[in-house]
Request: fold
Amino acid sequence: MAAAAGVSKATVSNVFNWPERVRPDLRKRVEEAARRLGYSGADPRGSLLSGGKTNALGIVPPGAFGIGIAFTHPYMRDFLAGVAEVCEAYGAAMHLVSGVGDKKARSIRNALVDGFIFNSLEEVGLIEPVRRRSLPFVVMDADGGPLINSVRIDDRDGARQAAQHLVDLGHRRFAILTVLRQSGSPPILHRPGGEGPRLDVGYPMDWERLCGIAEVLATVGLSINDVPIVEVFGGSADTTTFGGALAGAALLFDNAPEATAVIALGDTQDLAVLAEARRRNIAVPRDLSVVGFDDPPQLALADPPLTTVAQPSIEKGRVAARIIFEGGPARQVVLPVTLMIRNSTAPPRH
Amino acid sequence: MAAAAGVSKATVSNVFNWPERVRPDLRKRVEEAARRLGYSGADPRGSLLSGGKTNALGIVPPGAFGIGIAFTHPYMRDFLAGVAEVCEAYGAAMHLVSGVGDKKARSIRNALVDGFIFNSLEEVGLIEPVRRRSLPFVVMDADGGPLINSVRIDDRDGARQAAQHLVDLGHRRFAILTVLRQSGSPPILHRPGGEGPRLDVGYPMDWERLCGIAEVLATVGLSINDVPIVEVFGGSADTTTFGGALAGAALLFDNAPEATAVIALGDTQDLAVLAEARRRNIAVPRDLSVVGFDDPPQLALADPPLTTVAQPSIEKGRVAARIIFEGGPARQVVLPVTLMIRNSTAPPRH
DNA sequence: AGCGAATTTTGAACCGGTACAAAGACGGAT
DNA sequence: ATCCGTCTTTGTACCGGTTCAAAATTCGCT
Reply:
């Protein structure tokens, strides 16, 4: 290109980047040559190497999931819609990293992006290469300490609100369906008073939620150790993995027949409870109150509409993306949650 | 890095790319130096410049839309889930291009990808730079001729099936709600027999659909020129743009009170017809049959469940992505559609 | 030990730009 | 006409790899 126009490549670069530095006639000549050759600006690979930005934000799907979850899971869709909004504003593309396990690590190492959003603080190995490329990154739903950007919700407060709502309605016999963050595993039942893992189960996020419940129960003289808990892998309500959640709900019903209220700590889990209750002719909320966590659109459309702890999924996406684009010192953002009281909760029958 | 290990950079490159070419002891030495320096493989920017792949597939949202539509519009979600599946298999990332208008063009020019999927054959200007970078690309829902990869559905056949279904049920008085592919414009009414644009309205895709209907109508002695048609911008049923679709439906009802069957050529348009019918106490399907186009999940859940022409959205995504990854000569793929007969159609009342 | 063949390692070119200092051109003042 | 300051243009050094032919080393044999 430079040769074709009979000028140096520095001049070509100037014509496209600082046109005002080039005398009009020369500029015109270069522009004409460009048109003739069908050259319409720098090859991004070259500019990139000499210090340019990629104008892309890398997104790493949560845990063991591949890229497909971005379009299938309701929470991810909302979250990514928030990210998209901010990317749009900054003129940046969204780069969704594919692969699971080793392949995911490789994809992250080779991703041509200006920063990353990790959807969970998984293998630290994934983050190391990113840090070494000195790319900024944010971790979602985890606290990586003061040196790491993170965005999460007030899980403990959300659980507290949910439990308080049920306690206020008069409930005293609870059951909990929580999240097993491991695809393919069968549900795990924790019997009241049993040994085995209790509060130290699962991810920090679930632990916070259980703590919140425990706090409220304590105020009315109950111990969470007397509450039956089932852990079950959630997946998406659209897919076949819903069967797993249903099995978890069934296990819970079998082992906690006396419960008047179920708290489901995941958005698939709550729908499973509702479905399983219907199958067993348990009327919600007359015979059983159900509170969910997360608030994808379908919960409001469920039958009955679910009382649930809504998290600001879209806002989480916006905040995370802004952290990357705005730069600056590491931030830890905790966003508030809201209890959406709908029709799946009522006072217990006497 | 090369210097730190006391070897040439060519050797470092070999250690990471063809380890078997390097004698074990030297290899070990390099690997140790790498570990010490925290070097875990080539910087992707460098490899890219010297002929490497980006391992990313660029996706350009349709027409005037930004990147957000990828997560909000039901059709796009399905489509992209299909793309994601194939990307995952090839270990490639999905690179969603942001921006509208000029910004979109710039984003495309600078996108670090190995190929593109265009979601509509819009401004040819967008495609030119891509072709000049000699990147492969596919155009969705359009026929760009034998030299351009394209994937679309058999729109004409779909419309034919829908119309035939209604004709078989005994309908003879139709109304059509079609797609105005221009955000923000008010609905346009085409009165029966009126002058002004008829079949030459809208996008080629809509034209095909109208042709399909016309063909079937002709077999029972009707002309599509006697059918009232409203064009209206669709948007997504989730968003405020739904109001526009509703206005279009209202316009149609006002001007085609005698119709016993409405064919809606878009997935937002059909829901709007249903909503507007309910508002006017028109019972579907008793007083009015409605057939839709496209088949996002919510149509099956609509009240009543909509009879609709389902297109294989996910498969479209898979096919498009495969075309890019597999390479080879340009292909034009036309996928079949299926009429899903549900409960929004019935014989006309006498 | 000496020699040719096979294997390893490396120098140099190239990928396509950007940035900056130095060189060149130009205009005005003396 | 000469000199100087200003504005343009360009040479050159990176950016971080890959590749390939040539140089260097090793090895097996005689």
